[in-house]
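Lecture 7, part B: from sequences to assemblies.

Below are the input chains for today's worked example.
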Amino acid sequence: MAKHDPDLSALFHALSDPTRRAMLARLAAGPLTVTELAAPTGLRLPTVLKHLGVLEAAGLIASAKDGRIRTCAFVPGALAPARDWMEAQRSLWEARLDRLEAYVMQLMKEGGHDQ
Amino acid sequence: MAKHDPDLSALFHALSDPTRRAMLARLAAGPLTVTELAAPTGLRLPTVLKHLGVLEAAGLIASAKDGRIRTCAFVPGALAPARDWMEAQRSLWEARLDRLEAYVMQLMKEGGHDQ
DNA sequence: ATCATGCTTAGCCATACGGCTTAGTAACAC
DNA sequence: GTGTTACTAAGCCGTATGGCTAAGCATGAT
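Predicted structure of the full complex, as structure tokens:
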């Protein structure tokens, strides 16, 4: 498998799981502790911690431990690279449409009466 | 594992692989055949076809066979759900900031002696 | 000191993923 | 027809993923 773009791969992979997306959505509304995050999932703590590890490795959340309680928080800018990449694809596509249009215009100018 | 959001899961999963992202990027610039797509990857055809299957299942590309040649094309709107989801998280985050700000304003108006 | 809480570590298990090979099948070229 | 080209189908292999249990380890409460 290719080795470049570890960031985007980790980002998209982290987002590809519904459990992780749900956690991220809850964190976007405000910080939560690990147990609070686990509560609505029906999953065991170790499983939840693995998900949090994936999210944190992708840079989507940050966490800090105060006493025995770990609090997790959404990292606001983290989704930007993913958004940028998708935007780049859209741009590519539109550039192609523009070239097509330019080509058609050219044809029309050159051969006004032919089809 | 949770069962909702199969679309987003498939979408993000499809995007989580660098090979697939590279293929999608090339397709965003214009349609290509399977062999053309495979060429720069260094991967075998069956492997490439699996990747194409993932991309197509996610709705990111469409393909059609003409004679013995299958041509693949970028599907422009397909990234929108992913972008929308990410935008929703950003909104959540900003709503939270707004509430925080409103709260602070309230504290300041009251003179800050109690809650 | 003892116990409860909250997280952590280690490891098991089944399935999915990303790569491969080998062997087809369907169209075009001669 | 024979062969070549372009894709497809089937299945193997090693690793990663997503879930679990069981046990450990701090910290806070009694």
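Note for the exam: Residues 17, 19, 43-44, 46-47, 50-51, 54, 67-69 of chain A lie near DNA strand D (CB under 10 Å from a C1'). Keep this in mind when comparing with the next example.
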